[in-house]
Amino acid sequence: MLTQLGQPTWRPGSPAGWDDISASWAAPDALLRRVELANRYARTFAALDARALAPKLFPETLSEPTRQAVARADSAQQALALLFVSPEMLRR
Predict the structure, then answer these.
(1) SS (HEC) of the chain
(2) Domain coordinates of the chain in residue numbers?
(3) Which end of the chain, N or C, is less surrounded by CB atoms within 10 Å?
(4) How far apart are CA 16 and CA 9, in angstroms?
(5) Model confidence over 22-59: pLDDT tens digits?
(6) 63-74: string of b/e by CB count within 10 Å (b at 16+)?
(7) Number of C-alpha atoms within 13 angstroms, CB side, residue 29?
(8) Phi/psi at 15 (nearest 5 deg)?
């Protein structure tokens, strides 16, 4: 999984470790890999209700755009995938 996300275990790209600049994390290919992984996990944990889970995980920090995106999802799986790729989850 970490290799798919571009961070193979114990093998950072430089002695300084993994990049912490937005260009590395917000690049289109990096976002696509995270979305694909989120969808895969959402299928695995489809029994979870992201609409109920989100406020419990982020009681103080759940943004209105994230809450709306999760609430408007077409399915429980899509809601969970959206929660997995939300800014609140990526900051954890």
Answers:
(1) CCCCCCCCCCCCCCCCCCCCCHHHHCCHHHHHHHHHHHHHHHHHCCCCCHHHHHHHHCCCCCCHHHHHHHHCCCCHHHHHHHHHCCHHHHHC
(2) 25-91
(3) C
(4) 15
(5) 666 667 777 888 888 899 989 998 888 999 999 999 99
(6) eeebbebbeebe
(7) 4
(8) -60, -20
Residue written as tokens 């929660």? Answer: 83
pTM: 0.73
Calpha distance 70→46 (Å, rounded): 14
Q: Which residues, 6 or more positions from 24, have their beta carbon under 8 angstroms from its beta carbon?
A: 18, 30
Residue carrying the six token digits 């809601």: 79
